[in-house]
Specification:
Elements lengths: L1 E2 L6 H8 L3 H7 L1 E5 L1 H9 L3 E8 H4 L2 H12 L4 E4 L1 H7 L8 E6 L14 E6 L4 H13 L4 E5 L8 H7 L8 E5 L1 H10 L3 E5 L6 E2 L9 E6 L7 H6 L1 E4 L11 H25 L1
Parallel strand pairs: 1-4, 3-4, 6-7, 6-11, 7-8, 9-11, 9-12, 10-12
Antiparallel strand pairs: 2-5, 3-5
Helix pairs in contact: 1-6, 3-5, 7-8, 7-11
């Protein structure tokens, strides 16, 4: 491994620059930091531009396996001091390994529409919520996560960490206008459901998610946009306790697992016929 010793080294500066959205958008690159996330990134088909590792981290067995995998892919690995690593890293307690990844750009039109199962973020702002929803979408077998304009950057440091590698498992489409998404859904006969508390809403377990569908989750404070509320079927999560509401990531888990249950049972029933 080549050793980097200068604080002004271009690769250290570049890694640090990717903590800003404008630089991620300009380069199409983002940071995957931490041993578990690096494992999943290294095992994926996504391209690793280069990696930074501290001497202490490089001595660990799990990290050695990751570095061998990266070497087999032709990804350069640079050994750095703890001080240099902290300049490049974003976490308060760094694990000594980060990868600069080139994102696989996904477009809405490239997502399969046959019985598709989409998860849509409509103005979700918190990166931790967004990453958790993406992780849940991965767990239930969603075909893609779509972030509409005004939603948080799905490749920010915290979102990537919260998603725990799910970025590498399913298409992530961002920056989609509401008009374009609704045209896409209508043109491909995708039923849209949105979580909302109003007289139009039905309990989430009464909705039929078995066909091609998209489940929309709105902004933490204001809910979904008027465009999605007008176009989608409304569902709500019944509650008996005194809690005012559920966190959007928690609500997503409840609704998406109901959709998963219905779709799983439908598929199992079809296979036995």
């Amino acid at each position: 491994m080549e050793k980097i010793e200068s604080m002004s080294n271009a690769k250290i500066k570049h890694a640090a620059s990717l903590h800003l959205k404008k630089n991620r958008e300009k380069t199409g690159e983002f940071v995957a930091e931490g041993i578990r996330l690096a494992e999943m990134a290294a095992q994926s088909d996504w391209s690793c531009v280069y990696a930074l590792v501290t001497e202490d981290a490089a001595s660990k067995d799990r990290v050695k396996i990751i570095l061998e995998t990266l070497d087999g892919k032709g990804c350069p690995v640079y050994l750095v001091s703890d001080k240099l690593y902290r300049k490049a890293a974003a976490t308060e307690e760094p694990q000594g390994l980060l990868l600069i990844m080139r994102r696989e750009k996904a477009e809405l039109d490239s997502v399969s529409c046959v019985k598709s199962f989409l998860v849509v973020l409509d103005g979700v702002q918190d990166p931790g919520n967004a990453g958790t929803i993406l992780r849940t979408a991965d767990a239930v077998g969603a075909d893609a996560v779509v972030a509409l304009q005004g939603s948080v950057d799905l490749f920010s440091d915290k979102t990537v960490r919260s998603a725990m590698g799910s970025h590498f498992h399913l298409p992530v489409v961002d920056g989609v206008s509401r008009e374009d998404f609704l045209d896409y859904a209508e043109g491909n006969k995708i039923r849209c459901f949105v979580t909302a508390l109003d007289e139009k809403a039905q309990p989430h377990f009464n909705a039929d998610y078995k066909g091609a569908c998209a489940v929309v989750f709105g902004n933490e404070g204001n809910g979904a946009s008027k465009e999605l509320l007008q176009a989608a079927e409304h569902v709500y999560i019944p509650m008996r306790g005194q809690a005012e509401s559920l966190n959007v990531a928690s609500a997503a888990a409840v609704v998406l697992y109901e959709a998963f249950r219905q779709r799983y049972q439908s598929e199992a029933s079809s296979q036995t016929k």
